[in-house]
Design a protein that fits this description.
Layout lengths: L1 E7 L3 H12 L4 E4 L8 H4 L3 E2 L5 H15 L1 H20 L10 E5 L2 H16 L5 E4 H7 L9 E5 L3 E2 L5 H11 L3 E3 L4 E7 L2 E6 L2 E10 L5 H6 L9 E12 L7 E4 L5 E4 L4 E5 L5 E2 L5 E2 L2 H14 L8 E11 L6 E4 L6 E5 L4 H16 L18
Parallel strand pairs: 1-2, 1-11, 2-8, 4-13, 11-20
Antiparallel strand pairs: 3-7, 4-6, 5-6, 9-10, 10-11, 12-15, 12-18, 13-14, 14-15, 16-17, 19-20
Length: 379
C-alpha cells in the first residue's frame, strides 16, 4: 500500500499529525502496533502544563532553565490550540483552564519559585507570585503550612481518553487510513522514499513521521539513526472516588513530587512523576512505596483528602529525555524521515508539535513564526 506520508504511532502525537496533514490534503496512512491511545497518551492524567517543571529546575539549575525556557513558548502556544480544539474536532475534550498553582512549603522553595518565574515571564508566560494570604483567598483547600507560590492562569486539564480518538475520528473522515495491530518490523530507504515492513505486509511512502513515543528510538534505529536521548520511564497515577467540587486548579508542590486536579466527573487525579515498577511481563505496574509517598505528599498539601478513598492506581511508560527538550523535525542524513517526540509534557504539547511537524513534512515554515533551532534533531 502506498501513501504520501506514513505516520508511525497511534497516540496523540501520531493521530494529531495525521489529522493536520490530512486537513492540508496530504494522503496519509497511520500505523499503530496495538490500538489507538492505549499507551502514554491515554494513560496520563490529562494535565495541561505551561510552567517550567520545578523538579528539574532545582536539580539541573539555571543553566538548564535558560536552555529549556524556549520550550515554554511551545507549551503556551499548544494550550492556545487546546482552547478551541473541541469545537474544531466536534468533541467534548473537557478542556478546563482554571490555572496552575505551584505551592511553596519553605522560604527556600519560595526563592526557587521566584527565580524560575523570571525565565517563564521572559517567554511571555503570565506568572503571579502568591503569598500566604493569596493562597488562603484563592485556594482555601491548600494546607496552612504552604507559605506562598506561583499561579499561572493558562494551565489546566483535558480528558486524555478523548483527545487522540477525536483527532483520529476526524482524520479518518478526511481520508487517513488507520492500520491498528500493525507492528513496524523494519524500514528501508528507497529511491521513491521509504518501505515500511510490518506484521501486515509492506507499506510505502515518500515520507515517514516517527511519532512512536517511547518507542521512537527503536523505530529510528531501523534506519541507523541514533536517538540516544529518547527514553521511556514507568510512572504512576491514582484516582479517587467522586467527590464534590474541591480543587479547581492544577496543583503542584515545590518541595515534593505532586500533581493534583479534579476531573469533570469529580474524581481527584493524584500523580507527580512517581516511579512505577516493571512487572514480570515487561509492562509497568504500580509501586506500593511510591503510592504511599505520593498520597502522603498530597495529604500534606490538601488536608481534606484524609476522608477521600483512592479507588485505583495505574502505571504507564512516559516519554522522556535527560534535557526535557523535544525533538521535532527532519533527520538530516535520512531526508523525508521526520521525528515528532515531545518528552514529559507530550499531552500538553501534542497539538502544537503535530502542527509543526505536519508543516515541515510539507516543506512549509513552522507555524506562529516559531524558531525551531533548539528542537531540531541533532542527527
Amino acid at each position: 500500500m502506498t501513501a504520501d506520508v506514513i505516520v508511525i504511532g497511534g497516540g496523540l502525537a501520531g493521530c494529531a499529525t495525521a489529522y493536520y496533514l490530512a486537513a492540508d490534503g496530504v494522503d496519509v496512512t497511520l500505523l499503530e502496533r496495538f490500538d489507538l491511545n492505549t499507551l502514554a497518551s491515554g494513560s496520563n492524567a490529562g494535565s495541561l502544563h505551561a510552567q517550567i517543571p520545578h523538579d528539574p529546575f532545582v536539580r539541573l539549575g539555571e543553566t538548564w532553565a535558560a536552555s529549556y525556557a524556549s520550550t515554554v513558548g511551545l507549551l503556551a502556544k499548544s494550550i492556545e490550540i487546546w482552547r478551541g480544539l473541541g469545537d474544531e474536532l466536534g468533541a467534548d475534550l473537557e478542556v478546563k483552564l482554571r490555572g496552575g498553582l505551584l505551592v511553596a512549603r519553605t522560604p527556600y522553595d519560595m526563592r526557587a519559585i521566584e527565580r524560575k518565574a523570571r525565565y517563564e515571564r521572559e517567554q511571555g508566560l503570565e506568572i503571579q507570585l502568591f503569598d500566604r494570604a493569596d493562597i488562603a483567598r484563592e485556594a482555601p483547600y491548600v494546607s496552612e503550612e504552604m507559605i506562598g507560590g506561583a499561579f499561572c492562569p493558562d494551565e489546566g486539564k483535558a480528558n486524555p481518553f478523548a483527545a487522540a480518538p477525536a483527532f483520529a475520528r476526524v482524520a479518518r473522515q478526511r481520508g487517513v487510513r488507520i492500520e491498528r495491530q500493525t507492528a513496524v518490523l523494519g524500514i528501508e530507504r528507497t529511491n521513491q522514499g521509504y518501505d515500511v515492513a510490518t506484521s501486515k505486509g509492506k507499506f510505502s511512502a515518500r515520507r515517514v513521521v516517527n511519532a512512536a513515543g517511547s518507542d521512537a528510538g527503536r523505530i529510528a534505529e531501523m534506519l541507523g539513526i541514533d536517538l540516544a536521548d529518547v527514553q521511556g520511564f514507568p510512572i504512576q497515577v491514582s484516582a479517587t472516588e467522586k467527590v464534590g467540587p474541591l480543587i479547581p486548579h492544577l496543583l503542584y508542590c515545590a518541595s515534593d513530587k505532586l500533581t493534583l486536579k479534579q476531573n469533570q466527573v469529580g474524581s481527584l487525579l493524584i500523580g507527580g512523576g512517581w516511579e512505577a515498577n516493571i512487572g514480570p511481563h515487561g509492562t509497568p505496574v504500580a509501586n506500593p512505596e511510591s503510592l504511599s509517598k505520593n498520597m502522603g505528599v498530597a495529604l500534606s498539601v490538601v488536608p481534606a483528602l484524609r476522608d477521600i478513598k483512592v479507588l485505583r492506581t495505574w502505571a504507564a511508560i512516559v516519554n522522556g529525555t535527560e534535557d526535557w527538550k523535544p525533538i521535532l523535525g527532519e533527520i538530516r542524513k535520512s531526508p523525508g524521515f521526520f521525528v515528532n517526540f515531545f518528552p514529559w509534557m507530550g499531552f500538553t504539547a501534542g497539538p502544537i508539535a503535530a502542527r509543526i511537524v505536519a508543516n515541515l513534512v510539507q516543506g512549509k515554515p513552522a507555524p506562529f513564526d516559531i524558531d525551531l533551532t533548539p528542537f531540531l534533531p541533532k542527527t
